[in-house]
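hey can u check if this looks right to u? its 399 residues, i copy pasted from the old doc so theres a chance i mangled smth
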Amino acid sequence: MNRAIFMLALPVFLAAGTSMVATDLYLPAIPFLPEALNGDEVGAQYTLAAFFATFAIGQLVFGTLADLYDRRVILTWALAAFAASSVACALAETMNALIALRVVQGFAASAGTALAPAILREAGDDSLVVRLTSVVSSMEAVFPALAPVIGAWLVLGFGWESTFWLMAVIALFTMAAFQRFKMSSVPPHDPNRPPAHIRYWHLLVSRRFMGYQVSHAMAFAGLIIYIMASPYLLVTHLGHSMTAFVVMQITLIVFFVAFANFAGVLTDRYGIDHFIVIGAVFQMVSAVAFISVVVVWPEYLGATSFTLTMIPMAIGLGLRGGPGFAKAMAFAGTHTGSAGGLMMFTAMGMSAAGTQIVAPSLSEGPLMVALAVMICCALSLLLLPMAMKPEPEDPAAED
């Protein structure tokens, strides 16, 4: 990895990665929450859905602010709020209280991921954006790989509350580290910048932007719905230990990181759209394999089959993640902050909706999860022809 690229990407990773730890560090606690907080498995899943819902809404709010104000100042206040809400979550005594506090935490956590796309997009041309995005994605993948291991150790040794105490510490460290941010954090001056609702309208009526960004969101949501449900399915429904989930998570992340860097290096040679399509096909293969095991061969359900069927999903998202983001942002014009916020709103909103929809059926098995993953992957693939069809005299029509 080029050192200059790494140092450029590192502050963005720290800002965006802090919000990711709010889910990945917390996942090992999910099977233990019903007993600890006198709730049930549906309420435990709703602590995830509530986080994702306000995390999605926050993308639009912070995406708008990113086009107007200094992003360093916005991130500083948001990280402070994230730290405070994490402490409050650690002190929650009921499931309903934890759900409500996760609403606040999700909104505060959204700033890092909402601002990162705008910062990355303004770093240079499409080639540099793809490389930076792939590096940031790979660096962010360290959190999902390590966080479940750390989270499981914390939950077993110190209780579920300890995961939130660590989140608060990480947020405070990131807030301090981000003060050394080297890239400009002030949005480009645009005296003719339209108001927020006009910027979002321009993006919503852009066929190519919407095609790429909704396809990207579906690809992301398919994997997230599965990941959010898998701790309960593996530990409570199938009787595995939390170690099985941790091993599965690390395996999927290794494949994601490897292929994300592969795409980042070769998009200049083979074209961005090629990797988006190949990634979508890999994800569709994964969805078909997963639902086949659930419906046709349920006797093989377990940690091994869960992992094997999801490896193509991780490969697919690695191949298409950076290219898909870069291609969507190429059609955002000067509205990079709003576009980044809208992309994350769509991805996290779909993830929240899917997580909440499948939650009531988890006690009956993985069928609804498999169906949700299949629908997401199919729609993601079907949207690509709409996104890739050039407009007349479209300067970004070619890779």
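Residues 395-399 have pLDDT under 50 and may be disordered.
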